[in-house]
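User: I'm new to structure prediction. If I give you an amino acid sequence, what do you actually give back? Let's try with this one:
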Amino acid sequence: MLTTLNAITPIFLIIATGYLLFRTRVVGEAVWSAIEHICFYLLLPFLIIRTLSRANLGDVPILDFMTVLVVAILGMSTVLILTHALIWKRFPRSGPSFSSVFQGTTRFHGFVAIAVIGPLYGDDGVTLAALALAIMVPLLNVISVIVLSIYGHSETRPEVVAVIRKILTNPLIIACAAGLLLNRLGVPDILFQAIDIIGAGGLGLALLAVGAGMKLGHAAQHKLLLAIGVLTRLIGMPMMIILMSWLVGLDGLARTVAIIAGAVPTAASAYVMARKMGGNAELMSSIVTFQVLVAFFTLPMFIYIAELL
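Assistant: Good question. You get back a string of structure tokens that encode the predicted 3D arrangement of the chain. For your 309 residues, that looks like this:
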């Protein structure tokens, strides 16, 4: 447990530093936007390529790993939709708030997952984290768009072709494909060293950007829904993954990484999607922020549980 806390605490200190830098305006908002852009489109994709290009994928239980993640996501999605149908729909304008809680529960923050897994489990762990991204990002984007289209309040509805294009051009998905291709073809040492240097700069900046994106102002307006959005993600989702791992027989490092992927906060991009597609953007912002804060306590607990199983 102490080893886990020692590995995780610096991550949350970096996130807190990003928040302080943003609040004190030491770094301007335009700069943070540029940092997020370069992390998403260049630095983290190169980290994924670097990891996958020389990973020993023969030792990874890809099918069981994929089954656990996909079924856990679909299972939690079904529970949330049934809950809305039975309870939430009785309240006025419940749709947009439900869509934000849905995103907050099902989506995951890949930056934080990789930052946690890397120091604890090295390249083997990051390989599994990259595969989790490849599995979860397309599925979650499609599900989130469908849910927001049905429950959000927006004049515009995304076209199927536009959604598919967005998924196929996602830099993290492209990086996974490129890394797997290079793993098959081989990558020269000189090229690998260049990729390694670029990718090494990503996590610190990404975590600072996570902190800069935290907003505490709207929490008091959505106390109950905020609590639901935080607890279902940080406790409900990892419990769902533990159950699925037991049913499928997934164990070892693959199970631990899957549980961490379920226990990290939701994706910061969920706020942008909520704002653009008629979700409750203020609630979404609060969920993203408070999940980061609460995860400091819940994430070590689930890593400890994962290692005891």
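You can read the tokens as a compact description of the fold. Here is one thing that stands out. The mean pLDDT is 84.
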